[in-house]
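pinned: reference chain
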Amino acid sequence: MSTPDVDVDVNQNQNKNVKAEDILCPLAEYEECDFSKLLEKPRLLNIDRQRSLDERSLSELSIGISPRHATRAIDLNSSRFFEQLDSICSPLGRRSGFSTPRSQIGFDPHPMVAEAWEALRRSLVYFRGQPVGTIAALDTTEENLNYDQVFVRDFVPSALAFLMNGEPEIVKNFILKTLRLQSWEKKIDRFQLGEGVMPASFKVLHDPVRNNETLIADFGESAIGRVAPVDSGFWWIILLRAYTKSTGDTSLAELPECQKGMRLILSLCLSEGFDTFPTLLCADGCCMIDRRMGVYGYPIEIQALFFMALRCALLLLKQDDEGKEFIERIVKRLHALSYHMRSYFWLDLKQLNDIYRFKTEEYSHTAVNKFNVMPDSLPEWVFDFMPVCGGYFIGNVSPARMDFRWFCLGNCIAILSSLATPEQSTAIMDLIESRWEELVGEMPLKVCYPAMETHEWRIITGCDPKNTRWSYHNGGSWPVLLWLLTAACVKTGRPQIARRAIEIAEARLLKDHWPEYYDGKLGRYIGKQSRKAQTWSIAGYLVAKMMLEDPSHLGMIAIEEDKQMKPILRRSNSWTL
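pinned: its structure tokens
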């Protein structure tokens, strides 16, 4: 890619030394919007000039909690824990963990925290004197490959750590630089990618002769399998919302360039085609699981991120002519997507029994087995894996195919975005507790469960030597997922689960030099091709620690349920219209 990068003024519209209560919040009104109301006649914004976007609680607009309750103590083990977050205020600029001797709710900083911050800062990548991201890994004992690049998905936990620590500038720089890269012409061989595609990664090239620096991006043309990253655009929108929520600075999201960037991403996802489902059809290897692993079709990770990005976009898009058109399309898609996912991707004991008894070859709109799934295709392991109390969103649903594997990222994002109903969120956490040995074991957290072996592994992965059983993406344990688990635990009022997982990780992560992933059924062994000093393992740990220390940080990465979208759960006939 030879297109030169054009410098972006990252200091534009930056609010420096601004008190949180003085920041205007034109986006805050839509934080907990009723989707259907957005289709009605436009109305004037009612701007609350006294409180920042960060101070607006996740559910305050619907339950009416008064700011005067902000000083009351919170009970981390209460079933109403998440609602108590509404009365917590996180002032702009508060630093958490690294520079705080003791947290407000009784956590002593673990000795690993300072080490983790030092390692995270060593991973910073600079472009023309400004930090623009973090390198994937600093392992000097292995060949670089593409681990010397800044990956969009990998940077998310680093960005959250810096936001939680009161250092938003690097996040703003990253958002603007990747936005500039989006505008590049993107070709693989002779085929041109869509205008809205975000890069999977980028790196800074130093030219000592000319004494200048250039950004080089990878949109999939250098990736294994040459697959474009579907998740990058979604993570970019989610991160833009996290920045806005954390800082109260709406000026970045309101830039014409950012508004256009969001619309370009949404245009790719909301375009009409031959699909009969509201889910996104994807190739294998288009997300965190970036190798052949049988996740082609409609993978849960992409659908959950899609849902989350759509909800974030609703909060960020302006109510101008272009914005309103996309808002209408988003609202319609959200309703269809939530119904589809909650009805057809959800699996619990009752639903499993229903599938087990399915009839096949049904025709007409009265069919119960809509996708013509063969009951004999149910894997043996799922009957033992499914607890009496618990459930999860399965990996994939498409004609005559259901992938019953558990995928951690998709289920955690489903909780954080409120794609999962409160009842489903509770069931997911029940499943994690019930199947602790299988999903957490000796190192959190399994990226998917169970692993594929023997003939199944040969057919589905193509005999991939990196994805052997219980390794890498095939049942490997990834410490980065700790932050997603912790956020899901805080949102569902189950922080004790996260605390237990963090303690397990603390016993080994630093001693093992922050590996990328662990191998084995219990996650006992450092991965055979695992890089050390993996940045998102470091950042994931820091975010998990800071979120438990100050639960109000959850607001930047979680969105509460829209009451108008909540269905009546009918588990016994959830496959019928």
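why pinned: The chain has 19 helices and 13 strands. Residues 321-345 form the longest helix (25 residues).
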